[in-house]
Amino acid sequence: MDPRPALPAALAASLAAACAGSLELTPSDAATVLSGHHLDHPNPALPGPHRVLTLYYGSGTDRNRAEYRDSVAVVTEPVDASKLVSLGGSAKSRNRYWGFPPDSFPVNARVWYPDDPGPHPLVLVVHGNHDMRDFSDPGYDWLGELLASRGYILASVDMNFINGGIRGENDGRGWLLLKHLQAWRRFNEDPDGPFRGRVDMGNIGLIGHSRGGEAVALAAAFNRLARYPDDAALEFDFGFAVKAVIAIAPVDGQYLPAGRRTPVRDVNYLVFHGSHDGDVTSFHGLRQFNRVSFTGGRAGAAPPAAAGGSAGSAVESPGLFKSAVYVYRANHGQWNTVWGAHDNGPRSGRILKLDGLLPPEDQREFGRVFISSFLDVTLKGDDRYRPLFRDHRVAGGWLPGTMYITRFRDSSFRPLADFEEDIDVTTGSAAGVTLHGAGFSTWREGRLDLRSANRANTSSSQLNQALWLGWNNSYRDSDEPAPPAVFTFTLPGELAARWAVGPRSTLEMHVGGLDEEPGPRENPEEEGEGNQGDAAGTADEADEDRHGRGRGDEEKPPLELTVAAVDADGDTARVSLTDYGPLRRPLTIRVLRRRDLEDDRFADPWELVLQHFSIPLPDFAADNPAFEPGLLREVALVFDRTAAGTVVVDDVGLARPHPGFTAARVPRG
User: What is the DSSP letter of 171?
Assistant: First the structure.
């Protein structure tokens, strides 16, 4: 018999509810949002026409991996990573297990390739951190089979010997990827090897998962450098035509080159992350997404001939772009068939809530669609799939039935206001652009955070500034409706002409909704002017808990708003923002079984990820034929479709995208 006194029944029930909690998911709108399909092209997730061949390359002496000891078709030489990887106190045991120290790291990989002489684009994929004895490189077979059938060479790189309790080693992972590319250059030139002339070294893609997701960004940065940033005695000699970088649930900032976060420029970049990631629990890849810059050059660091390809082998890149996708109910490990659902190890089912996850094949099907189409656009120049990265709704028939949030920017984008340049809330980013708000309870600029509870430093920051707008279109103690809140971006007279704004131009922005609803405004006729600050509505906002929900968690109406454009002649045209993408309130996330631990660990049960909206200026002219896009003078966000709410706005600007990106209004379903 248990000698301990029994808890009172009410207290026991209360503790059980606090610790366990029921499955909490935002009701899916996929049946509506994904109800259309607007790309009349083959599904990029389907196998292609090529028969798939496989082989291994590596040291031929691996103590623990029979495939890299007995089955290698191409023997490679070890490389010296000792300046980049330090094993610390674990060096003795690790070297004993693997049989080699960092100055003799092997160049091992398993390869899927088409039974066709080519040449074919080359793609490397690298895993992240995991139990070093539970080998991770076989876990991308679903990608290897698909991509090889579609005309790519895919090599899944073995870096299990870096896994384990090492920190700050992602520079070594990135450098090792580039050493693999050097090996591939030799493979392509070897007259007696299996890859002689098969490899298009003018079109290279890198894919990384978890720590590998940071490593591919580091590889893209190192690829342009002459020396190692932390020790210039180590020379680099790379300069490969890396045109596509894909990060899957990446970490960010575990290694800081020269003490700074990794800058990446002039590559096409795709990052995606699952809401229910139990390992990298916030969308850290948004920070690298924000740092990818376009300077006007082509993708790739060097002409193809300098990277080992033929001078005519490269596909010209007509417009660089970057895209970030947040996948609701996806986790960390199901992108790798070895890792699976248990993001914190084999026993983590006791800690993590697994019953709300996407089925693993659905999660990987999303990966097939986005990775295959991204590589087709960036390495093969197949522009048919470009619209997918701006608006996922165009491919509703291909995507698993969950919710997605997409961010996007291309190299033609010019910001009217990205809220990064100063602390003046009345000025935009382009010279002469002014900002004005009327009727708002909240109007402020500030930092976008990740959902970590530690808000005291930049580790929980998206490293990005944005605009907060909160409104309530009613008056306190009055039945009289208030005029809708309006936020206006005013362009100086010459800007539209200087930027060549016209029928091919698009208005771009990122917008996300919150649950907060400010209270009614003071009537200016009774209280006087001055209701533009943060004071109005504070009594009602006091009822909001720290998760941004009001009493009773009542269902709130969808967020909608009007976007108005005004030309120099005063002609005004309007469209509904939600015709160009879903504007959702936050998606609920519960990754831990114990609610009390979840609430302690995370400031919010959701991640603030903003949705991309792209509005072709001719759509405004369709609303009002008198409106002239080339004379654009004002853009206004008019909050006339939802009575009260809060949104976060970022990256408002104009673009002149490649024609393959131009997309008309997509019906809501």
Answer: H
Q: Cβ atoms within 10 A of the Cβ of 545, count?
A: 10
- Average pLDDT of 24-35? 94
Hey, what amino acid is at 188?
N
- The angle subtended at Cα 611 by Cα 606 and Cα 617, nearest 5°, is 165
Q: Give the pair of three-digit tokens for residue 52.
A: 């798939």
CB atoms within 10 A of CB 445: 18
pLDDT tens digits, 403-453? 999 999 999 999 999 999 999 999 999 999 999 999 999 999 999 999 875
Average pLDDT over residues 361-372: 98
For the ranges 289-303, 346-360, 385-399, the maximum mean pLDDT occurs at 385-399
Q: CA-CA distance, 125 to 137, in Å (whole number)?
A: 9
User: What's phi and psi for 341, nearest 5 deg?
Assistant: -85, -15
What letter does residue 352 receive in the DSSP assignment?
A: B
The DSSP element (H or E) to which 41 belongs, if any, is none
User: What are the backbone angles phi and psi of residue 145, rounded to the nearest 5°?
Assistant: -60, -45
**Residues 205, 153: Cα–Cα separation, whole Å:** 10
Can you name the residues that pair with 58 across neighbouring β-strands?
75
CB atoms within 10 A of CB 238: 20
Sign of torsion, CA 78 83 84 88?
Answer: positive
Q: How many CB atoms lie within 10 A of CB 453?
A: 13
Angle between helices 141-149 and 360-380 (to 10 degrees): 40
Residue 212 near residue 285, CB atoms below 8 Å: no
Tokens of 20: 């366990």
Query: For residues 310 and 301, what is the distance between their CA atoms, to the nearest angstrom?
Result: 15
**Helix, strand or coil for residue 564?**
strand
Give mean pLDDT, residues 610-629.
96
Rounded Cα distance, 335 and 541, in Å: 40
Query: Is the pLDDT score of 524 beyond 90?
Result: no
Amino acid identity for residue 369 in this structure: V
Nearest CA among 207, 209, 186, 182 for reference residue 196: 186
Reference 607, options 591, 620, 626; nearest CA is 591
How far is 438 from 442, CA to CA, in rounded Å? Answer: 10
**Shortest CA distance to 181 belongs to which of 106, 242, 103?**
242
Beta strands in 572-656 (DSSP E): 572-576, 611-616, 632-639, 644-655
φ, ψ for residue 137 (rounded to 5)? -65, -25
**Measured CA distances, 397 to 45, 250, 365 (Å):** 12, 27, 12
State the chain's mean pLDDT as an integer: 89
Q: Counting every residue, how long is the chain?
A: 669
DSSP annotation of 475 reads: B
Q: How far apart are CA 534 and CA 443, in angstroms?
A: 7
Task: Give CA–CA dist 150/221, Å, rounded.
Answer: 28
- Residue 18 pLDDT greater than 60, yes or no: no
3-state secondary structure 500-552: CCCCCCEEEEEEEEECCCCCCECCHHHHCCCCCCCCCCHHHHCCCCCCCCCHH
3-state helix, strand, coil in the chain (%, to 5): 25, 25, 50
- Using the predicted structure, report yes or no on whether residue 396 has a pLDDT greater than 70: yes
User: Which tokens is 596 given?
Assistant: 């009390």
Tokens of 284: 């850290």
